[in-house]
Prior knowledge:
By secondary structure, the chain is an alpha+beta fold. It contains ten helices and 20 strands. The protein is globular and about 95 Å long.
Amino acid sequence: xxxxxxxxxxxxCCIFAKKSIMNDKLLNRFLRYVSINTQSNPDxxxxxxxxxxxxxxxxLADELRNIGLENxxxxxxxxxxxxxxxxxxxxxxxxxxxAHLDTSPAACGKCNPQIINQYDGKDIIxxxxxxxxxxxxxxxxxxxxxxxxxxxxxxSSLLGADDKAGIAEIITAMEYIVNHPEIPHGKIAVxxxxxxxxxxxxxxxxxxxxxxxYAYTLDGGQLGELEYENFNAAKATIHIEGIDIHxxxxxxxxxxSQLIAMxxxxxxxxxxxxxxxxGYEGFFLLTDIQGNIEKTQMEYLIREHDxxxxxxxxxxxxxxxxxxxxxxxxxxxxxxxTDQYRNxxxxxxxxxxIISIAEKAMIEAxxxxxxxxxxxxxxxxxxxxxxxxxxxxxxxxxxxxxxxxFIVLESMEKASQTIVNIIKEFGKSLTVYASxxxxxxxxxxxxxxxxxxxxxxxxxxx
Length: 462
């Protein structure tokens, strides 16, 4: 997942690092997971798109069984599901936690992680020979982690914290819950999905089998991120067919498709590019261009949070292609725009109490919550429109999809603590004082932050 580049200093969490059993388990799990190359393949028609994802899924299913989860399964698409049964007679909402198996195809996925214990606040040299480093001037967020444990790449690959950190954090939290039956909770579901990075795996997710009304993805960035807004996303594919002819006879006859492609790129808004935008600002991104004089194909990503602006962007690129067709009537220019996912905000706002619960869970773990828009998408966006509202929580990672990716072990522990605290919040009991009421059947409605969570029936006898 691409997440916001915004960062906030977490003052409560940057003074010193404290060793814990949870830290050790998280570290061991994470190092095992990132040693497995589970890159997704955008050119594959299969789900999962790479065999290594299915092998990883089966490994994780065994691990879930070993820590005590029930009804663990892996389907043919590599989707892992497992459950912790309710341990209370009270009616408590079932909740879920989700992370993804694959790593980005943008960089090599076979990682050789490097560990810095008690980071000293200096620049981190990742690969001296190739001048790959994390300098505190470019990455000032490093300074909030003085004294803590930083895990980074060796410069030859990405780290894979997106999203193997999320997997490690969920499993570690589940192990804690299973080993602490004194914590009352309803049904808990976990799932690990394939091909999130190429947007295909979640299409096969069985919401009914998962069996929860609410869920959280663990696929965010730095400590404290809480995300329930993401880009509306589309892909534009442009085919340009020109006319090739011997250059000696080309005058008035040749139509160079590559030059038309360059002209199209120049006609798009120059300030609406990823490197020039932030926050809620959308963009066009040319991700691929291949061609020759006769034929050229261009691939664009279109991203925008606001729905009206999103529709306008899609129309703009189509109008641009049409204008070029009119300018070059002997060429053949075709633009196809395909929607990929939508902004989940409208679905989360209907159940906004799940954001309030996550904020409270973070505060209980001494974390300052940061509600930021996702400059990308998550599986949670698609799940929200499939009937499973699913905001996104931090994992503790930075600089996803590249050789400068790193994660902070103490932030990973905070993520696991946040999961446990969310489970505790959902499991809290509600006392109804009904001694003054006559016997009979009553309906009561639970409202949190002006949101109706549920309506239940109560039978009162005297």
